[in-house]
Amino acid sequence: MENKVGYPRDYQRALNNVLSERRLEELLKGSTPVFLLGPLMLPRMLKSVTDAEPDFDIAANMTQASLLDYKLWIFEGADLPIVMPSKELGQSVDGVLVFALTSDQRNWLYQFEAESYKELAHVQVEICLRDGNLRNIDAATFVWKGEMDGIVAASSKSWKVDAFLESEWYKNAGRRYHSH
Questions:
Q1: Could you report the average pLDDT of every consecutive run of 10 residues in the chain (180 residues)?
Q2: Are 120 and 114 in contact, with CB atoms under 8 Å apart?
Q3: Which 3 state secondary structure label does DSSP give 40?
Q4: Residue 173 belongs to a domain
Q5: Which residues pair with 118 in a beta bridge?
């Protein structure tokens, strides 16, 4: 995923956070990691949705990841991303993986994401470790199960965050959580 100089510092940190094998093993001892895309890739948004303490450094528990065997779709006009399984070989979606969410944070996330058209699914993601090796990890993510009206295939495998950063939704989330 692209990491631009003008992006919020906490988001840049999450994208640049490459785990060592040892740190990954520590994090995997906790709850199942969650693959996120769209607005929740931004630490400020994730903290807002999960009602985290303002000084909680959630970016330290995030890293770039690829969701294997899925395809990225977009709601036309809203630019909000969703994922669905793909039958095409080699398809993947870029996003972030977040580790070490508390049960309360996971419940907040579930309430935010789970609707009648999405369901929590067990998936495989791939991350790049500090030593350059790729590692497949069991994770969870929210998968679209609804109608396809108004939904189009994305032109890439990464959601473009730029327009969202200018939105009122993001600015309102920032009132409580500023970039570290």
A1: 82 95 95 95 90 86 97 88 93 96 91 84 97 97 92 92 84 59
A2: yes
A3: helix
A4: no
A5: 144
Tokens of 140: 């969870």
Provide the domain limits for residue 69.
Answer: 9-157
In which element (H, E) is residue 16 found? Answer: helix 9-16
Find the CATH number of the domain harbouring 93: 3.10.490.10
Q: Do residues 127 and 135 make contact, with C-beta atoms less than 8 angstroms apart?
A: yes
Q: What is the CA radius of gyration of the chain?
A: 15
Q: Which two tokens stand for residue 22?
A: 């040892």
Instruction: Please report the DSSP string for 102-167 in residue order.
Output: -HHHHHHHHHHH--TTEEEEEEEEEEE-TTS-EEEEEEEEEEE-S--TTEEE-SSSB---HHHHTS
In this prediction the pTM is 0.91
Q: Domain tally for the chain?
A: 1
